[in-house]
Amino acid sequence: MKIAILGYGNLAKGVESAVRQNKDMELKYVFTRRDPAGVKVNTDGVIVKSVDEILNYKQDIDVLVICGGSATDLPEMTPKYAKDFNVIDSFDTHARIPEHFANVDKAAKENGHTALISCGWDPGMFSLLRLYGNAILPEGQDYTFWGKGVSQGHSDAIRRVKGVKNGKQYTIPVQSALESVRNGENPTLTTRQKHTRECFVVAEEGADLAQIEHDIKTMPNYFDEYDTTVHFISEEEFNRDHKEIPHGGFVFRSGVTGFDKEHKHVIEYSLKLDSNPEFTASVLLAYARAIFRLNNEGVTGCKTVFDIAPAYLTPLSGEEIRAHLL
Amino acid sequence: MKIAILGYGNLAKGVESAVRQNKDMELKYVFTRRDPAGVKVNTDGVIVKSVDEILNYKQDIDVLVICGGSATDLPEMTPKYAKDFNVIDSFDTHARIPEHFANVDKAAKENGHTALISCGWDPGMFSLLRLYGNAILPEGQDYTFWGKGVSQGHSDAIRRVKGVKNGKQYTIPVQSALESVRNGENPTLTTRQKHTRECFVVAEEGADLAQIEHDIKTMPNYFDEYDTTVHFISEEEFNRDHKEIPHGGFVFRSGVTGFDKEHKHVIEYSLKLDSNPEFTASVLLAYARAIFRLNNEGVTGCKTVFDIAPAYLTPLSGEEIRAHLL
Description:
The structure is a homodimer. By secondary structure, chain A is an alpha/beta fold. Chain A contains 11 helices and 14 strands. Chain A has helices at about 10-20, 75-80, 95-110, 125-135, 150-160, 175-180, 190-195, 210-215, 235-240, 275-295, 320-325, and strands spanning about 1-5, 25-30, 45-50, 65, 85-90, 115, 140-145, 150, 165-175, 195-205, 225-230, 245-255, 265-275, 300-305. Chain A has a 7-stranded parallel beta sheet with strand order 3-2-1-4-5-6-14, sandwiched between helices. In chain A, strands 8-9-10-11 form a 4-stranded mixed beta sheet. In chain A, helix 8 (about 210-215) links the parallel strand 10 (about 195-205) and strand 11. In chain A, helix 1 crosses helix 10 and helix 2 (about 75-80) packs parallel to helix 3 (about 95-110). The longest helix of chain A is centred in the last third of the chain and has 21 residues, at about 275-295. Chains A and B meet through helix 1, helix 3, helix 4, strand 13 and helix 10 of A and helix 1, helix 3, helix 4, strand 13 and helix 10 of B.
């Protein structure tokens, strides 16, 4: 399978490194909106080109992995490139998924391609676990917790506060809430009861630290509904301890069965990830394999993780997975 | 969807109660090898018939859920009934899955039916999680732990010991082993290091308790490779505290990503089940829905959980699951 990447940020680098772990795949191209001369990739033999030239390489690409931002890039890019390629993206603006799906489906179907949107871990693996949980236990409750991990959006918000030189925000699930769900107590949880937010801030010299802390903790939508902790640290500490992009979380389905609904069941799925973009990239590649295979079978249009039979994700044969994984 | 059950043990009763939780399903028949007059079901309107008459009801059954034993019943029954029905079973003799699959596949394909074997939680949901984990993190290790829960096979083995009137065995994962895997330490674990076995025994009057304990703890294959605890209890305690059939377990995939494989990731899936047969039955019904739909689409032959796109498991539409679960 010949893979190409559009973009070259953290997610794209995750795809680049993950291709090396999948023996049936080869990374052929990185397409960039920047000057290609300024983009140095980590893999010998990979050709870097301007995205303006992408159609010239159409015949040599099995799946194009689109590594753009959900806010503005992907709603434009994925439908556009679905006309000429099998494409996959990690679109994660939940409210706009139906619209994005329709646009990508139309472009892919009209041109005989296969696309998959909203891939990764949430949306992605967490969505799958919610679906499996609901199908198996129709009478029950869903819970999703995120973290411990870095929220890019909240870190950006901190850095916009006056007097802040650098900052990073960790979302942390509340342990007692996790335990209550795990014990099948089916608690009703407020926003504040589910997650706390921990901020590490490098202040500018002479900045008013009390004011910074106040501005962060009261910020509407981002922090005001949470218990937030603010730690001021030096630039050295920041660079030493907060360079990584870990994340993770928990999906629970808690339900009942029995003639008198007397038996409780708790299904729990959790991820503990040292690198959010590299794990997301690893999920994208497994699904890239699936859409390439589906396209070869003549299945076209837009798919989500819900539409993909798990066997399509692995390079192993049906005989092998039945013998070793079933 | 019209459901019929073959057999009427614990698993079948689980299917009977789970049908009530699935609004698109109706339980029409229970077929038994016993005298049907002696089988009292829990649901009004369900018709109990001898299995000898099953072909008379062929036109009124969408999926036949075969609730037999893996050792001798299912290898005979599932291929036999796949000739006349869409069928599903919970065949769990791992070593014989390839042979069972081939037999069922032939019978189902030749007669235009759809079958699914080895459904439940292990094999079943645990298998799926192993497949997803391997596809996403190709470089890593799998771990499966079972418990805390009742092992039927080990309980049967205890009851065969001289001087034992009744007995139940719980399989318990070793907490320190779970923690080590959860921390991404990738331990190499012996059988003894993964699980302990706890036995609750009602002895016959005047039995030699020390001899019973010795006979259990040294029993080859069942107990000799484990740290086993034996508790002697009264019949009253047994009936009060050990009537339920709980189970559960953990599946982990622990792997690495990154150009230097410098990032660790741990995927964990766990089940905590008050009733093993009722949960297994709930999984069976979700997959019964899937094979009925696939059969309507003209897809025939034998499937496993690996072959079923998750969207087929839920009564919700594609639009609904994309809007609410993705």
